[in-house]
Amino acid sequence: MASPQPPPADPEPVNPASRPAPTLSVILPVYNAMPWLPITIRDMLKQQLANNEPLELLCAFDGGGDGSLVFLLELAALLGARATVEVCELRADGRVVDSNPALAAALRQPEDADHPSFAAAGPPGELVGEGQQLLVEPLSAADVAACARPEHALRVLRYADGKNRGQGAAMSLALSMLDERSPFIAQVKNTPTVYGSCCRSLCKSLL
């Protein structure tokens, strides 16, 4: 069995403020999100807003070992100046975001197969169409990068220690780092049902 490949190095830092102000900031918490993560990102970054206005997609990585981080770093490298990888350093007392006191609590146990969201998802054999195809031929970072519109930006956010703190902490991380110039904020999630039509509906309802 081949040994697992280490994740690619973070790309050279780019200041998000140097880009045009986004019209929409979309937050995507990421925890063991494969194989749905590539298609969710693809379908968000390929949306064309009115007058080709830009959006930023903030992927808040919340730990996990299914390859989600490797995919995000590969995609960021392919997107070049359109992507950033931003690491949130812990404070000396171990806390992360001051605005959320819940983050001072002890870390919970990592999610696993007994989490209710996994039980509700049903067995893979029930998936149809593009969802079933993903289990056979997952989208690559190159596939996703090829579909991304040039005006949109990807921001990969992660804690320096890589620990799982839960979706609330991931949301807090993204909210603390989003571009303050953006007039609209939305959240999407990684599920078999979040495809292009859902992303189009989200953009149309806000803009």
Features:
single chain; 207 residues; alpha/beta; five-stranded parallel beta sheet; 5 strands; 31% helix
Gist of the model:
With 207 residues, the protein is of the alpha/beta class. The chain has 7 helices and 5 strands.
What is the global morphology?
Answer: globular
- The stretches of 5 or more residues where confidence is low (pLDDT under 50) are 113-128
Q: If helices are DSSP runs of H or I spanning 4 or more residues, what is the number of helices?
A: 7
Number of domains: 1
Tell me the Rg in angstroms: 17 Å
The strand count comes to 5
Describe the oligomeric state of these chains in a short phrase. Answer: single chain
Q: Percent range for helical residues?
A: 25-40%
Q: Numbering strands along the chain, what is their spatial order in the largest sheet? A: 3-4-2-1-5
Q: What class do helices, strands and sheet pairing give?
A: alpha/beta
Taken in chain order, the helices and strands follow as EHEHEHHHEHEH
Report how far the terminal alpha carbons are from each other: 49 Å
How is the biggest beta sheet arranged? Answer: 5 strands, parallel
Give the integer mean of the pLDDT values: 76
Percent of residues in beta strands: 5-15%
